[in-house]
């Protein structure tokens, strides 16, 4: 049944991609403004003005689920709860409001709460690192609000800078009472036990701060980045405004965050930088405190993308980590970096053992922090729930008229159009898809464009099955008759031929049906012997085109053109 829990180690079908070891790209031309990942690390959510798109990274050939929410405002941030206890919660922004979604509910009524206290547009959201019921929001109105989802009608706490709007907010990963926010060039560190006065104020940069991130290991250390082309590591428990470490870059830094392992960081340019993502070791070495304000130039151990790297063709807007393993508390995890760019491409980058070695990954070491995702069921929410469940008692349901306008059907993505933008393996880095190196999904998409009168009733690329319907000249005296066929593709396709199973029909004699089977089997077997895709040639045969079962030239016009 769709939506059931599945083991990440045991795909449900030979066709289901083992995506952790594979690079991949998906094109989503929907004006996406933000991205987040589920606690099981199986789904990602993309936020747009039209609503949310939920993608299953384990089965990239299935179009994303669309949850409508039409608004005139850009989505500044979307956050999927990282906690197993709230693995169905997503929060997104809509100007001054924050929408709390429950993806276990039907898409038309998935908004459970509307958080409204800010007087200006919300700029960032962050879930509490320890308490699954709490989160924080910040806005241009300079306020930082903390929320308790057990009482969502009003904020549980508030802090204010009074002089500059807030751009980022982050809870400490080690101290449940500490939250930090950025206001222009300043970082304010707040303690919810100390009222409205900040625990610490730091003038961190010379220009606007774009990102802040707490260390997973050291309680009082946080990373900041800015338009001034620097990344800085701070110890907010130390007096003064001297950073522990300064990294100088050649580009304004849009985001910089700690690695999910060891002591290193990922840097993402706001512009320039070859539209790449840079991963480096340090700052944050154990001896950093002994040499305060050490300066260095960015020297990445790993660069993903950039000139000749086959990555994004525009600036990267967001990145996040996907991992699996580590259940016993020891460092045996596998990693993948997920990026979203202004080219509307979602890219999955395989992090190889060689890359991990360069980043000083210590396999077998004990993980020095708790993984909040442990216990989250490994399931996808990219499909609509099978049964429409009633909203739980006491839930504040958003007034639908104020939240949505018009039909969301126009924003859903057809499967054929979606398949055209999915590339796996080497094809993910190719400027133009190549039928000889691409996948079944690309072939089905291309064939759908070539034969607009053929109806693809069901496309299950992950299971290697397609059901299609067409009209072909197989009746008496060449009359058109209706054909429905189920095409099964073996896991080794195109090295092995697909199998066509035709639905019996009163308009087809048994002899003519046998001729049909023999014809497509001959064409498919010949293509498989040469390792070639065969769906297009088989369909040409079924619609009545003259197709040589064994062309002399491999570059025949009958070959698939993507």
Can you give me a brief rundown of this structure?
With 562 residues, the protein is mainly beta. The protein has 6 helices and 34 strands. The two termini are 33 Å apart.
Chart the SSEs and their pairings:
Layout: E1 24-27, E2 32-37, E3 43-48, E4 51-56, E5 65-68, E6 78-80, E7 89-94, E8 97-102, E9 111-116, E10 122-127, E11 134-139, E12 143-148, E13 157-160, E14 166-171, E15 178-183, E16 186-191, E17 200-203, E18 209-214, E19 221-226, E20 230-235, E21 245-248, E22 253-258, E23 264-269, E24 277-281, E25 294-297, E26 302-304, E27 316-324, E28 334-341, E29 345-350, H1 353-358, H2 400-403, H3 415-419, E30 422-424, H4 440-450, E31 455-460, E32 465-472, E33 481-488, E34 499-502, H5 510-529, H6 535-542
Parallel strand pairs: 21-25
Antiparallel strand pairs: 1-29, 1-30, 2-3, 3-4, 4-5, 6-7, 7-8, 8-9, 10-11, 11-12, 12-13, 14-15, 15-16, 16-17, 18-19, 19-20, 20-21, 22-23, 23-24, 24-26, 27-28, 28-29, 31-32, 32-33, 33-34
Helix pairs in contact: 5-6
